[in-house]
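Project outcomes to date are best conveyed with an example. Our students and postdoctoral researchers have been running inverse folding experiments weekly, and each run begins with a structure described purely in tokens. The record below, which covers 129 residues, was selected by the lab manager from last quarter's runs and is presented without edits.
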């Protein structure tokens, strides 16, 4: 409908405006030589978040608040998506190694069954000579 399209366009325009404002904010900090300070502050906050999450006494509501803050941050979403892809890749590689090991085990078991018979045949043949 028209109203839904208008709402989506307004939301899209709002995000675009936000991106322009955010880019200008970062550019001004860079020009003022404050970009490193801003990023260091961000890293400090991430370190504090890590400490709070690892702390056994952190309440569930604090964890929820931290989670909301982190997951609203697109960088964390992207990082988690990459992490999930890496996990899925590791699973595939492990499954392939497992398949290869199963084949190797089956071959060794077959060899184990055949070997005693061939040793007995060789032993019997050398006794009769």
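After processing, the design step wrote out the following sequence:
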């Amino acid at each position: 409908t028209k109203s839904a399209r208008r709402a989506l366009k307004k939301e899209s325009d709002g995000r675009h405006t936000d991106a322009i404002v955010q880019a200008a904010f970062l550019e001004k900090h860079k020009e003022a030589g404050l970009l490193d300070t801003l990023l260091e502050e961000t890293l400090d906050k991430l370190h504090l978040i890590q400490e709070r999450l690892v702390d056994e006494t952190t309440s569930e509501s604090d964890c929820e608040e931290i989670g909301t803050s982190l997951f609203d941050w697109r960088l964390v979403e992207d990082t988690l998506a990459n992490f999930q892809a890496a996990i899925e890749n590791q699973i595939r590689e492990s499954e392939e190694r497992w398949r290869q090991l199963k084949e190797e085990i089956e071959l060794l078991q077959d060899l184990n069954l055949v070997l005693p018979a061939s040793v007995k045949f060789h032993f019997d043949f050398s006794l009769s000579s």
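The CA atoms of residues 59 and 65 lie 10 Å apart. The helical segments are 2-31, 35-54, 60-72, 74-128. The training component of this project remains on track.
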